[in-house]
Write a structure and sequence with these properties.
alpha+beta
Length: 151
């Protein structure tokens, strides 16, 4: 467990489809952190794991897909969870191999998924606390990065 001065590290994937949409999944209402909210694929680094290794592992664990290409860095985000623990999350735009219409959502952790366009990011504010716009910020940064990459 990290000390107060040592935040948890997380890796996140903004999975992109051929239409330039980004994949989001709804967290289960039973989750301790951010219950029933929309989220990107990702999670905490395991001991000894790099950000890149966690990225690949989390995509497969949460969707059944495999990262085929890391398109680029979206950004690094610092936040404090409702558990009071500080986190630093590094997020990437990725392409994956697999049936994009049929992700294998992690049982008990996620209940549904959506592919969103940039115009649809308002849905990401559902069930968020007032002032908690981090997932929408990440999505907007992801779409901005897609434009910069010409995708």
């Amino acid at each position: 467990m990290p000390t107060e001065s040592e935040p948890l590290r997380c890796a996140g994937a903004l999975v992109v489809d051929d239409d330039g949409r980004i994949f989001f999944q709804r967290r289960s209402p039973h989750r301790k952190l951010f219950p029933n909210t929309w989220d990107i694929v990702g999670g905490h680094l395991e001991p000894g794991e790099t950000v890149e290794e966690a990225l690949l592992r989390e995509v497969t664990e949460e969707t059944g897909w495999h990262v085929s290409l890391v398109l680029g860095l979206v950004g690094e985000y610092t936040y404090t969870g409702t558990d009071g623990i500080d986190r630093i999350e590094t997020d990437f735009l990725v392409r994956v191999d697999g049936d994009l219409s049929r992700p294998r959502l992690e049982a008990g952790k996620h209940t549904e998924f959506r592919w969103l366009t940039e115009a649809e990011t308002g849905v990401l504010d559902e069930h968020r606390e007032p002032g908690d716009g981090v997932i929408r910020e990440i999505a907007e940064d992801g779409f901005r990065a897609l434009r910069l990459l010409g995708l």
